[in-house]
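Title: Prediction job returns without error message
Component: structure pipeline
Severity: low
Priority: P3
Assignee: unassigned

Description:
Job completed but the reporter wants confirmation the result is attached to the right record. Sequence as submitted:
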Amino acid sequence: MNNPFLKRIGFAMVLAVTSAHVLAATSSDFIDAATEAGIAEVVAGNLAKEKSKNPEIKAFAQQMVTDHTQANQKLGDIARKLDITVPDEATMTDKAKKVILEWRDETFDRSYLNNQVDAHEKAVELFKKEASSSDNAELKAFASNALPKLEHHLEQAKQLQAKHGQKE
């Protein structure tokens, strides 16, 4: 996969798994979409901490790992209470790593930031929908509480994207 456009599209598909579930109507669909996106954020953040040479991007990546790990744990607790199985972390981790590791180092930061904007836009949309229309009070509260942090992540990603290079 030497084409930067195809790499970006492939990674966007992994990170933005929420897009397929944005219109989902069930608690299980929201949990699946949010968990898959959260796992992808942690994987991408860990790889960005390793591959990026920019301290600002590394700090952002660490924040993504910390915040999304906490959110994944909370959502997993809710899912267990509701007897809903969450997506397999190992499978999602492998999918994300395969795409990310194919990036060349000189384009990693740009690709990472572009996809952070895309993924967080989709996550904000997903969480807004769940916060406003969920039939499960616990998931509605989870989405409502997580939404401001996701919106902040989106704003940070947009600022870093503007500073370190827009989409190709």
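Comment from assignee: result matches the submitted record. The mean pLDDT is 81.
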